[in-house]
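Hello,

Following up on my earlier ticket. Below are the two sequence lines again, exactly as submitted.
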Amino acid sequence: MKIIEAENLTKTFNGFTAVNGVNFHINRGEIFGFLGPNGAGKTTIINMLTGLAKITAGQVKLLGEDYTRSVKKAQALMGIVPDESNLYEELSGRENLCFCGALYGMEKGLREARADRLLEQFELVEAAGRPFRAYSKGMKRKLAIAAGIIHQPEILFLDEPTTGIDVGFARQIRKLIVDLHRRGTTIFLTTHYIEEAERLCERLAFIVRGKIVREGTVDELMKEAQRDNIVRFTLGGDFSGLAGEFKARFPGYAIQAGQDSGVSIHAPAPFPLLPLVQFFEERSLPVYEAKIVRPSLEEVFVKITGIEPQKMQNQQGPKSMKGPQGARS
Amino acid sequence: MKAWIAFGNIFMKDMRSYYLKPPNISWGLIFPIAWTLMFFLRSPVPLEVRDLLPGVMSLSILFGTTSMLAVTITFERKSRSFDRLLLAPISLNLLMLAKTTGAIMFGVINAFVPILFASFLTDLSGINWPLVLGSVIFIAITSTFLGLFVAVSVSQVFEAQTFSNFFRFPMLFLCGLFIPVADLPVFIRPLSYILPLTYGADILKTAVNNNGVLSLSLSFLMLLLFTAFLFSYSIYNVNRRWIL
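Thanks for your patience. The regenerated structure is below:
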């Protein structure tokens, strides 16, 4: 079931088109992600969906109902965690949660009980009474997520949830996102971290310069970049000078020596492994490992968008997010 | 009902976070005392406390409400916590009413500080108290909405202060608080009548000393119109400038 449907969503600012005719939907219970560089229009789309920005053209539906002109009703079903904290510095963590619950009309007893439960779930009990200004960046982000779900929304919007926080907290937040998803929360997240998108999202849309350039599951997107069928063998012994014999035995296949003790076999179609293993063993080259090599999401992204990963990385990004990734095996 | 829970909590949070903080309470005490003393010290002729009361009360409300509201809203806007309110499922009108109710109450309380002091210094019998309350509430509402008008027209806290003063200081002299409007140069007088405080202060003069010059119904009508205009224009500006 579709929770959010955006049709031809467009946003212009003083003649500049920030979002250009975007179409997508989010299914109930899934984690859907927007992956794109800074300035691609991710936050503008979230702002349009949540009522912080007016929609220039197009329409948005929540549970099948168009709310383009009546966002207030829809806001009751949304939880929003912006890229920068917007909680109150002078209030304590618990007070902030209770205040956010009150904004959604929750009765005192209910919001206090939920606040306590969330503080426990997010491991913030010890800091519950401290003013928000005394929280570290990571704790602030965790509390912001807790504030976003205190009213148990149908859908949670997470805008760049791990940007600018350190490794430990980034990991905790990704774990929290997975936990929330397991409990049935529908999540829409934006990120410019490829690895994060790959780890968390079930479906992804690549967004560049206000347009969705590709959308699909991670596997569907991978297939686009899969030119060859590649298997990497880790071998014992000396395999130099094997190329001629290999080509004669397996015409149409290509063999490439790796930097470590292995070779990669490329073929235009899927191929059986047993003849290859036998070929190596006949030459006293024991096979220790055989891995199917698939392209990384990064390669897919670069291929589709033409944007190099270095341009995606924010300098303030969490240290856990690597630059270029290794092959996804 | 749910919207009113949000309303009540926004109001209570503002009271706790801004208006009931010791520096603001001291502002409410010091400001009227300073103004009263200034007139006593500078006046070449002996002054009646009761004559000064409407002007000092009006100023206390004007400065108290506009300072607080313009700054707090601009500050929340700057720190993005105001976005959280805009994302809440309550109407913009109710949200802005919740944000302004604290300032209105602060203004009303400020107005009674000079009365409290005056009660030790002079005889306050014969004052029309219901009319005092009515005018104080209306002055507080229009002044608060003037602060709101300022807050939604600027983006920085310092701009809010400067822009507020652009209205407030001329109002000191133009609204008949201490200098009757009739004593102002003819070409300036029209300005007096486009400022809400002129009407509020005149009602207070009638209530305290029975020496107002405008009809009460005209003054209340004008205050109502200013209230409607300032609030509507502020909401229009929030929609235009903050929800892009």
